[in-house]
Design a protein that fits this description.
The chain is an alpha+beta fold. Helix content is about 25%, strand content about 25%. A 5-stranded antiparallel sheet has the order 2-3-1-6-5, covered by helices on one side. Strands 4-7 form a two-stranded parallel ribbon. It is globular, with a radius of gyration of 18 Å.
């Protein structure tokens, strides 16, 4: 087996979109901090959209990126909240996985906090292979060849093997 073909988890990103409601944003920040123990960063708008009441510099959400062992640990917990079930719609053509958790109290180890209430969040998993750094490096960056990219089926097989997920029928 070629070690350059091994798929690994590059990062897990947790995201909560709050819109222009600052109270909901504070609850989202507290929620991610309660689940992971790490404070998230706030995301801000760049565009002005008057019909939505958005202006540049307005905080509209929060996110947290986890890597290595912490990423694997939180991914296992969030997949438990999903019942280890994902559908094919959760996988994109580049091999990444994204799913939502409607209620955070389903996550093992998360306790209900009356200050937060019932909230959900989104979990995005980015998969990579050794050699993917060539697209991000500053000197002579280049594209990933088509035969080295991760397909949807390869990411499904990886998630089945590593995390014992069950594919739902649509």
């Amino acid at each position: 087996m070629n070690t350059m073909r091994d798929i690994r988890i590059e990062k897990v990103t947790m995201n909560i979109g709050a819109g222009k409601d600052p109270a909901l944003l504070d609850k989202g920040v507290a929620l991610i901090k309660n689940i992971t123990g790490i404070p998230p960063v706030k995301t801000f708008t760049n565009k002005r959209i008057p019909s939505w009441g958005l202006r540049p510099g307005l905080a509209i959400g929060c996110k947290l990126t986890l890597r290595r062992d912490k990423a694997v640990d939180i991914l296992k917990r969030t997949l438990e909240a999903q019942g280890r079930k994902l559908s094919e719609k959760n996988f994109d053509d580049q091999g990444n996985v994204a799913f939502g958790i409607p209620e955070y109290i389903d996550i093992p180890g998360a306790k209900y906090d009356p200050a937060i209430g019932i909230m959900g969040l989104q979990v995005c998993v980015t998969l990579s292979r050794p050699g993917f750094r060539v697209k991000r490096r500053s000197y002579r960056s280049s594209r990933i060849p088509k035969k080295h990219r991760i397909s949807r089926q390869e990411s499904i097989d990886f998630m089945r093997k590593k995390f014992d997920i069950i594919m739902e029928e649509e």
